[in-house]
Automatic annotation (TrEMBL):
NCBIfam families linked to this entry: hutG_amidohyd (TIGR02017)
Entry-linked InterPro entries: HutG_amidohyd, N-FG_amidohydro
Protein name: N-formylglutamate deformylase
Gene3D superfamilies for the chain: Zn-dependent exopeptidases
Organism: Pleomorphomonas diazotrophica
Amino acid sequence: MSEATNPVIRRGQAPLLLSLPHVGTAIPEDIEKRLVSPWLARKDADWWIDQLYDFASEMDATIVRAHWSRTVIDLNRDPSGVSLYPGQATTGLCPVETFDGEPLYRPSLEPDADEIEARTDVYYRPYHEALTAEISRLCNINERVVVYDCHSIRSAIPRLFAGKLPVFNLGTNSGASAASDLIKRLSDILAGSGRSHVVDGRFKGGYITRHYGQPETGVYALQMELACRGYIRESLGPVSEANWPVAFDPVFAGPTRLTLRAVLAACLAFARG
């Protein structure tokens, strides 16, 4: 495994791990030359989430951050290809279309089953091997560990959900991946933010939350899906290369960062008992 395929890791000692599987924008040349456009391939990245959560290092959290674009492979999908949201529109392990349904590849150049398997080996496994290793390391020095999966998405995508998404979307796999008292603590913080929020709404948690959240072993997992308007000056409606992504403004993002800091502090307090 070459170093270039590895995720970026910040190792801490606190019982908190942040996973950032969709912040990567790198695309190998052999894949990029088959795409409709590089911009379209990066359109659905979780823009600036690493900057939004940069305070987590002050909490001595471990941070695992993806290098490669989700167009190369989606690190938050089941590697078997099974849909996490049966009956609902979504994208696959190696997406061939955007969230809006636009084709990512030029005709007849989509990845086939052999290529998807090869991408799984080269790009998917290193990220999950890193998560597994870091969770194990943290479990060796902490009685409880919280895995917090960081995501964002445009506020309005009619193909995926009706209307406007709440700003804070907390996913707990319908309560199976985390303890009820932790979920209540976080829900209370979100309610007190003055922003819209939901628990286990449209986004109940992807593969990372569902796979690693095993409360019986002391590992609790959550997904936070943020509507982009909560931290960047997002204009609702269709986006283009001329207006997306919007630049990150730490002042505009400030109120959301305060709420997220409180959320992570509550995760730490829970993990420390």
